[in-house]
Amino acid sequence: MKKRYFILAIALVLCACLTVLGACVNTDLSDYAYPEGFEEMLAQSYSDRKDEVDVRIMSFNMLVHIAGWGGLPVEPRAKMFTAVLDKYAPDIIAAQEVCSDWHKVLKDNIFDDYEVIKPKINLFSYNKTPIFYNTRTLSLIESGYMPYSEGDDNGCRAVTWGLFEVKSNGKRFIVTDTHLDLVRGKDTQKELAVMSKQADELIDLIYELTERYDCALAACGDYNSQENAEGTDSSGNPLGDFAAASIYAKLCEKLTDVKYVDGVNIIGQSDAAYEPTWDHIFSVGEIVPCDFFVLSDDIYTKMSDHYAIMADMILT
């Protein structure tokens, strides 16, 4: 009995500490300024949505606030992000690296329009790969969360999924969101093997979901794998094995990268929109991409170390 009370006391202390830490996050974004030139760039950006489009899907690695991951304080970056949402109005935001600070700030600033699938994994851990959906345009029918059997134990290596219905026409579709492991170069073949196992588990889940619900699916995420190994890192060095191009190729055996579907219009603010990336939106089934947006203006590097991508989809 004493042991039980001791554990309860420890839990209460931890909850109190987390509450205090949570209070350190300033969710009032009016206290922050946009980077110089951001508002002008955003105002001039093309964001039109064609009448035949059923759903606009965003995939975005938001970058945690943790300094050891290269992160920066969330609040000024969230101010930029909420402006992006006002401009582009995605129906789905499949997000990665959504740390506790991101969850708290977004809860107080976008939840008039959006709700989130699986905000927390457990009492203490936030889901770093949640899906946000626009409640004005979509209804959530069912959802789930699947951690991978192998990989980093940091809350990223999992799949969040949701089955949605478009309110205006009753069409249904599925979205998955994930963040695969990566090649660090410590043991490349072992790291690629972990990524390959995760990709297999993701593909198995995707096909199980499409069979269960008999509808199309969009598979979003930071796959930590590029279209080819010819790219360079931030210092200009060839990526080689770090590109994990074999993982991208494995995914493309079963899934379609919507960016490269014939007839898709790629829209971006710089040549970077056409370069290989770590982030992709794949599709399965009767879902046709129309426009593909890459938020590639240099000023977006102040929002994250990844460019947000979006696909306008027609459900057939």
Description:
There is one protein chain. The chain has 316 residues and is of the alpha+beta class. It has a single domain, classed as Deoxyribonuclease I, Chain A (4-Layer Sandwich), CATH 3.60.10.10. The protein has helices at residues 2-23, 38-44, 74-88, 100-109, 188-213, 245-254; strands at 55-61, 92-96, 114-117, 131-134, 138-147, 158-166, 172-179, 216-222, 256-257, 265-268, 279-284, 287-294, 309-315. The chain has a seven-stranded mixed β-sheet with strand order 3-4-2-1-13-12-10, with no helix packed on it. A six-stranded mixed β-sheet has the order 5-6-7-8-11-9, with helices on one face. Helix 3 links the parallel strand 1 (55-61) and strand 2. Helix 5 (188-213) packs parallel to helix 6 (245-254). The chain starts with a helix and ends with a strand. 40% of the residues are buried. The model is unreliable at 11-23 (pLDDT under 50).
